[in-house]
Description:
Layout: H1 9-19, H2 26-38, H3 43-56, E1 59-60, E2 67-68, H4 74-77, E3 82-89, H5 92-101, E4 106-110, H6 128-135, E5 142-146, H7 152-164, E6 170-174, H8 190-198, E7 201-202
Parallel strand pairs: 3-4, 3-5, 5-6
Antiparallel strand pairs: 1-2, 6-7
Helix pairs in contact: 1-2, 5-8
Amino acid sequence: MENQNLLPVFIDKLINQLNKLPGIGSKTAQRLALSILKKPDGYIENLVDSLNKVNTEVRLCNECQNYCESDLCLICQNEKRNPNSICVVEDILDLIAIENSGVFKGKYFVLHGLISPLNGVLPSNTKVDLLCKKLNNVCTPTELILSLNSTSDGDATCHYINESLKNEMVSISKLASGLPFGSDLDYLDSRTLSQAIENRKSF
Ligand SMILES: [Zn+2]
């Protein structure tokens, strides 16, 4: 990184760590690091405490792989949510977008990535096999709603799940067509997203 030798090594280390985050280029990383240094007393201690807490206290829900602080996330703990309707999402941002749309009252499963043959991302690099194993063991009629981005990786993941599920208790549906190809679910407005869920189609 340019100007690297102009700054104390510990600031450089902070810049390098920030630079590893998505969407944070080297200039932004420098700006963030220097603004952290200018924050009032207590800010850095609180930041360090927050980082330590998410590192040690946050884990994945046993049922759905959402983030949580105990064995089950708040959605899985909620007995009002329908356990026989499971919405499959790529990541937590998509889960938040669907929750904000207010239309879905079932439970989720978070894949933490999509299968990407072109980029060498295998099913084993995501939670997709865990999902298929869970669903091949359900004994009550269950609807699986594939709410994945409309991209070639999203399509590859949908096809893999469809091929892997051998349980007749599970019916698979997909978000209504009409979403622009390449669209990111968490960038869609709530109305478009809720309509895509309400008008879902059998896969
Ligand atoms: Zn959960």
